[in-house]
Amino acid sequence: MDVKLKERIAFSILLIATIIIIMPVVFIMILVLLRGLPAVSPEFVFGMPREGMRAGGIFPAIVGTVYLVLGTAVFSIPFGIMAAIYLNEYAAKNWLTRVIELAIINLAGVPSIVYGLFGLGLFVAFLNMGVSILAGSLTLAIMTLPVIITATKEALGAVPRSFREVSFSLGASRWQTVRHVVLPNAIPGIITGAILGLSRAAGETAPILFTVAAFYLPRLPRSVYDQAMALPYHIYVLSTQVPNVSVKIQYGTVLVLVSLVFIMNILASWLRARLRKRKTW
Amino acid sequence: MVATESQKSKIKIQNLNVWYEKHQAVKNLNLSVYQNEILGVIGPSNSGKTSFLKTLNRLNELYPGTKTDGEVLLDGENIFTKIDKHLLRKRVGIVFALPLPLPLSIYDNVAYGPRLHGAKKVDEIVEKALKAAAIWDEVKDRLQTNAFKLSGGQQQRLCIARTLAVEPEVILYDEPCSGLDPISTLKIEEAMQELKKNYTQILVTNNVKQAARASDRTAFFLMGELIEIGGTKQIFTVPRDKRTEDYITGRFG
To answer: Could you tell me if residue B2 is inside a domain?
Structure first.
């Protein structure tokens, strides 16, 4: 067979594979937009649910998800970044470090329902936090940690070694080097990784199932010890637990959640592109 | 300047051995560096020149698997036991082979070191350092420009200024002109001659002619061993060792 023909076949197969990959995304988007858009109105977004969630809005679920994302950010970002700095800049290459790194990789592979049960056992029951935003945020934070640690480590690792060597050569301590040379240059990657981790947390159902999610709570949460409705769980409830909910409301809720996650992802990409343009090396 | 034994030693190296993992990079080195001289260090690749240099401010400790044995005395004090390594690096500065500005403005590159050490009057220090490195006139109107915008030769002089700004006593140069054109090289060599008044300098170079031009004494390293050291004129006209002669006349290396 001649080279040109082979080339065309290879090109076609690769292109078709790529198109097949994006098709599910496109179909989901179209379906959700077509069926959900008619439901979305100011009253739907900012209103309280009524008539056993068969009418009214989903505001408490939106607020609940926003609180959970913020709570997750508060717990996972500082610890994740600090752990990554330790592992990348300080830790000696010994068995302990390898065990920790292996644990983080495994943490990323734990099924989300296991996090949910773990959160129920540790935060809700043992630490007596009850079913609460606090317990839910902590559970989601643990799930998000490996994403943030991995992204931060990659961002730190991408800062050239020579920058560190220059800093040390001028008499800087390790912390001064991290603080003034490594971190400022790793920030874009860290922010992007953190947002992507949080956007995943925003859409998770299993970890919040037993730790925070309220079936029906037509008011806003009053404190971190309060239960809260959340979008992913609300979708589950609307589609399986409550009879006679209009398809419009179900898809409208899905549209709001998907939009929230998309906005976060786009924000992450935009920030990355913007900060990368400022990068001079 | 012809070196004599009566000159004051700034750095005294005794029985120094340096290993990277199992590879011995420096073998039983004994050497003195005199106050205010420029000591040229020549030798082929892998002769231990850079390892020797980076041991003097303990920068080689950044590479895992490094082991050092022997004594290096700075003004009579053992750098491994008596001097804090951060303070040592402040006193013994280094200029790297490639120009390595930090991704900061010209000003902030030079101010980086002084700020670390809590200096006051940073503006004055920056100006003085840039002048001493013979680059002030070229950058004084654009101090806030990113350092990467400068040419390679300017970047390297900026790096010299950055090293000077922490007010070291000794400056190490690790093949500082390897990526530079002849005119930039000349400017750096001229700056080094000016700096002789106040600093002790060690110049590791792959360019034999540069050592001949710029240094007062020259040391020849081969396979981690110091083969010969002497006044630059003597080394380049009447080398005592056959291997030195072969190297400087380009017969190997």
So the answer is: no
